[in-house]
UniProtKB/TrEMBL annotation:
<dbReference type="Pfam" id="PF01661">
    <property type="entry name" value="Macro"/>
</dbReference>
<dbReference type="InterPro" id="IPR043472">
    <property type="entry name" value="Macro_dom-like"/>
</dbReference>
<feature type="domain" description="Macro">
    <location>
        <begin position="1"/>
        <end position="180"/>
    </location>
</feature>
<dbReference type="InterPro" id="IPR002589">
    <property type="entry name" value="Macro_dom"/>
</dbReference>
<protein>
    <submittedName>
        <fullName>O-acetyl-ADP-ribose deacetylase (Regulator of RNase III), contains Macro domain</fullName>
    </submittedName>
</protein>
Amino acid sequence: MRKEYNPTSIELIHGDITKSEVDCIVNAANTSLLGGGGVDGAIHRAGGSEILEQCKQIRARQGGCAVGEAVITTAGKLNSKYVIHTIGPVWNDGKNNEEEKLQSCYINILELACKHNIRSIAFPNISTGIYRFPKIVAAQIALKSVKNYIELHSAIDRIQFVCFDEENYQIYQKMLEESGM
Ligand code: AR6
């Protein structure tokens, strides 16, 4: 599924983000930046050791990455130039600013992408796996944050939302059809 929104093309993909052909793919990492399971494991496996080496250098400089923030590395052997690693919030009961923290992830990623002249970017469904964020709310936040950003900045040509699981894919498909995007 593809939609045009201003000068930005929005694509919905059902699949593996490590196969995306974009300037930058986003990783749903943890504060250690040392890898893990889920999409984080898949990106490090497919991208090779160069990504981990750069994550370790960032750790040495700034002691990892906080929830809601984002850092950038090479994409190693992947088809992309960069990986932006963000740390989504763990969902507890929704009363710990989880929604604001997830929104910060998207905003910080897009700001970092613009700084690096990234024209195309692929997002996984941050926090909706191991971190248990409710999928509908997470999709609403993702779409709203991206929409708000591209309305103000026209620097990104192509945005992919890559849904690995069927449930997220169905949610995004419905929301994109119903939204003004
Ligand atoms: N491509 C695209 N999406 C994927 C892929 C893939 N190859 N694999 C999984 N997903 P998760 P989180 C989806 O658990 O919830 C890690 O251990 C998955 O279906 O990867 O933010 C980190 O190190 C789900 O919709 O990330 C952290 O410790 C989405 O990616 C922790 O998990 C996010 O699921 C982060 O948890």
